[in-house]
Amino acid sequence: MSVLNKLHPQPLFSYFEQICKVPRPSKKEERIRQFLLDFASENGLNAKTDKIGNVLIMKSATPGFENAKTVILQTHMDMVCEKNSDKVFDFDNDSIEPIISGGWVKANGTTLGADCGIGIAAQLAVLTSQEIKHGPLECLITVDEETGLTGAFNLQPGFLSGSVLLNLDSEDEGEIFIGCAGGIDTLATFSYTGEPVSEKSTAFMISVSGLTGGHSGDDIHKNRGNANKILTRFLWKIVQKYDAKLSDFNGGNLRNAIAREAFAVVTVSANLKENVVSDFNEFSEGLKTEFEKNEPGLQLKIKTVETPEFVIDAKTGKNLLYSLFACPHGVLEMSSRMENMVETSTNLASVKFIDNNKIRVTTSQRSEIESRKIMAAEMVESVFKLAGAVVEHSDGYPGWAPNPDSDLLKITVESYKKLFGVEPVVRSIHAGLECGLFLQKYPGLDMVSFGPTIRGAHSPDERLDIETTAKFWKHLVDVLQNMQ
User: Of these four, 7, 180, 291, 470, which has the most CB atoms within 10 Å of its CB?
Assistant: First the structure.
């Protein structure tokens, strides 16, 4: 039964609801790819895929627009898969459950996938419209944007023919983006030896939950709590004070999301049980005061659990916690080129016990300046190397340098002013977009990025603003009709 059928504009929301029904985790895009190819076939549109799995759907110009520039509408087909800990959901097989809450579309306990599902829906609505006047269109939908930019990295010259690209992956209506930060991941791996647990030990599970989380680019400057950092603060204290031993640490999930939840299991001498609980209660009260404005939902819990089979050796445990405590997280520098914009940041994304007695710490760094992106990655590398970890970096991806003299930008700005009577904000974004990689493969591309307002991206609080979705659609249609 349709939930969004009364929202306007239709068919934009109708297509979005159809997309919600198709599982599309990063690196598992087979079903959404087939959905897109079936859509093209059913509507008599030419479509093709490349070796990596990107999809391109083409539509001829409407009469009178045959000589207009070929416009590329670009989105990505995967979504971030995050859910509340108490939500039973299988992202590989289950459909997202959209709900309307006030003026927003949300999902029931999971990420919504409006990033970038609403952009795909806009592409499909344009492709099937008989009313919109436009030049030749190419709708590019890439794979694996969220976890590796794999589709953009592997896009080959010659796959596209357009010279103008509208990226529909932005999340702030009324803002037009003409640049973005570059990024790189830094991964640290600790090797440990499992040791037996003393018979005179008590085990605790300590958890941090209820945090807002969010996008590690868009939201990094909002002073939101990082569950990994908060949990580490208490563990560091009891390791020093009570010689606590670490058995497990599981915090955060995705490299581009601020950690919302973290859990650890530790052991201490049984005679210190009450001391640990007392210290935890004191720590918890302090944290609630510390985060009362930014994180009112913060929950810290401690409970006794069954004694684990092993603890990690004391040296590795201390090295891990000391390096997590020292590892920077958040804004490193603000931009000197654009007011109120983050220039360089780093995100302590996840801590996981993995196979073969190893612990993997994943972090990500972003900057609009390539040299400072590398500096931030090397800063994080230094912290973990001092602690004895093996450190490696991803290949990274480039930023997108702004072009304020862009012809496409002028058309997009004038369209917005004409439609809504106000000047849009033109700026760069601290999040990573695929545009920098497109520019490497197609140096002549003229690009802008815009979209409706999305809040809470990459978290179960993700929500799509209904009113701005209508404005985004109206703006997109007008831009296409003014491309001559």
Answer: 180
